[in-house]
Amino acid sequence: MVIDDDFDIATLVKIILQKNGFKNVFAFTKPSLALEHFRINSTDYCLVICDIRMPEMNGFELAKNINLIKPGIKILLMTAFDIDDGSLTAMNGKYKNNISGIIQKPVSPGKLASIIISQVNK
Question: What CATH number does the domain located at 2-120 have?
């Protein structure tokens, strides 16, 4: 599942995933719709990729809610802002344990595919 309030980014990530063999990839621009879809279809997912800064619900909040539905699911957050592990903890430390990793935007399609495949194979 891919969630980014930018339609083009959500679609691009979805296409990259599909080109790398992932079959059932759904992309959302609204976190609330993504969360409702996940609630109904959580068994279909092994990985969630979402933007950090979105209106309505940020990526940390979405990750927390997704993890309540399916504890331990791998969640990758994406951001265009510089972020390191220390600032991630300071930004929202109470959610950190729900996050498997951070993807810095912009990211090349090859690197994005590599990050995602490594997370799925962990």
Answer: 3.40.50.2300
